[in-house]
Amino acid sequence: MTMNSRTTAQHVEDAGIASAPGTAYLLSNELVGRLGVKGDEWWGGLTVTARSVEAGIDSWHALDPEGGSWLIRSARWNSAAACRLQLGAALALRLGEDLAEAPAFLGAPDSFAHVYPHGKRRTLAEFARGGAGLAEFLALAVAVASALARLHAAGVVHGALVPGGVLLAADMRVRCAVFAAGAGEGSGPERDHATLRQELPYAAPELLRTDPALADARADLYAIGVILYEQLTGALPLAADGLAGWLHAHVAMEAPSVRQRRPDVPPVLDALLLKLLSKDARARYQTAEALAADLRRVARALARNGQAETFPLARGEFADAAQVATRLFGRREESRALAEGYAAFRATAAPHVLLVSGPPGAGKSTLVETFLTELRGQRVICAAAKGVQLRQGAPLAPLRQALRRTLAQLMAGDATALTAAQARLAR
User: Fold this and answer.
1) pLDDT at 360 over 60
2) Which of 229, 91, 69, 87 shows the shortest CA–CA distance to 163?
3) In this predicted structure, what is the pLDDT of residue 190?
4) Does the CA dihedral 113-114-117-121 come out positive or negative?
5) I want to staple 161 with a disulfide (CB 3.0 to 4.6 A). Which of 223, 241, 330, 346 is the partner?
6) Using N-to-C axis directions, what is the helix angle for 242-252 and 397-412, rounded to 10°?
7) Are 365 and 358 in contact (CB under 8 A)?
């Protein structure tokens, strides 16, 4: 089997697989060396039982002639989806099998594919929701929170937690799967939070907001809050449809008390879940360790006397958040040039393009973001995006991201501004 004709590593040729031609996607070389591939005979013997496609990733379940069940996720070479698959697999290998699910092997004709043993994996999406007793639920919640704490301790923010991406073994060992494109790369407005449809009900407000709010480990804690709420009650805490609807729901709508659906839930557990669902990340649990500790305390109290007393949540998280200087130093001339360019645009209403150049680490992003922060105070619609070197297969991705954020701002704003924008676009 030969997936592409060109390669940059001898061991890839020996394995019968090559990295995408003419691109920077060389990460697959390492993956092939560690995971290996299957030949054409194996692929030809598969029987596909189910298939779905989203965001450029083709997911299908298949059976081999020996009865083995497999989950296969594939994407076109030279595509952003292939880059996401490669980055996710490399991250899973780095974290190890105790924390993450790595592919069993790679390869498919004319595409980049990950293959997982489907029969041995069970996700939270396959569990019955809403019917578990409190003891069973708390055991699950502690296992999930503890796994998330270990993930964060490894320096990784998942960024795309959904029930189908949380794997649960028979011994209650929890692992993660299907990481976001930017997982493990730190936090900040530079991360690409292109949210897939199935992730929208679980996405933290800062992942959907149009302003480049910092997204960090607390976004995972919000997602865990939604997942646990759904597991306990059988229903999502919020209901919406589409990006604009979920943006409004996560930013503006409050989740109802768990006790409205499960009166047997003690008030302290209700308060714990609602804390996870706080709109402001600073009001949530700040660490998964603290969440796991409080869940264990509730579980011990219920096991001891059938009741869980109310106690202060997230004890030990009272340290003041680090204060980061927001003033820009040493960029007076550059800031003035940006201001003059914007003034010229306002005076003529003609499109303007300003190019900011410089070596990596020179402060280009900080300069532009400081300027945009000043404009936002004037009720100006601002959208920022950033290119990623490994995403060369999608050169227009930053433009798409900026347009998406602009549209979301208009949809979330007042009706007058939206109507005016529609009229201008119709001209």
Assistant:
1) no
2) 229
3) 38
4) negative
5) 223
6) 60
7) no
Alpha-carbon torsion (60, 65, 69, 73), positive or negative: negative
On the question of pLDDT at 30 being above 70, the answer is no
- Written as one string, the DSSP assignment of 43-72 is HHT-EEEEEEEETTEEEEEEE-TT--EEEE
Q: 282 Cβ partners below 8 Å, 6+ apart?
A: 321
Sign of CA dihedral 11, 13, 16, 21: positive
0.85 cut: is pTM over it? no
Q: How far apart are CA 410 and CA 235, in angstroms?
A: 30
Q: Are 29 and 8 in contact (CB under 8 A)?
A: yes
The total of other beta-carbon atoms located within 10 Å of residue 22's CB is 12
In sequence order, the β-bridge partners of residue 48 are 62
Residue 331 CA to residue 219 CA, distance in Å, equals 32
Distance of CA 116 to the CA centre of its chain: 21
Listed in sequence order, the DSSP H helices in 114-255 are: 134-153, 205-208, 217-233, 242-252
What pLDDT score does 14 carry?
A: 29
Residue 7 in tokens: 């390669």
> Could you tell me which residues come within 8 angstroms of residue 176 by beta carbon, excluding any fewer than 6 positions away?
95, 99, 100, 101, 147, 151, 158, 161, 165, 166, 167
Do residues 195 and 237 lie in contact, with contact meaning Cβ atoms separated by under 8 Å? Answer: no
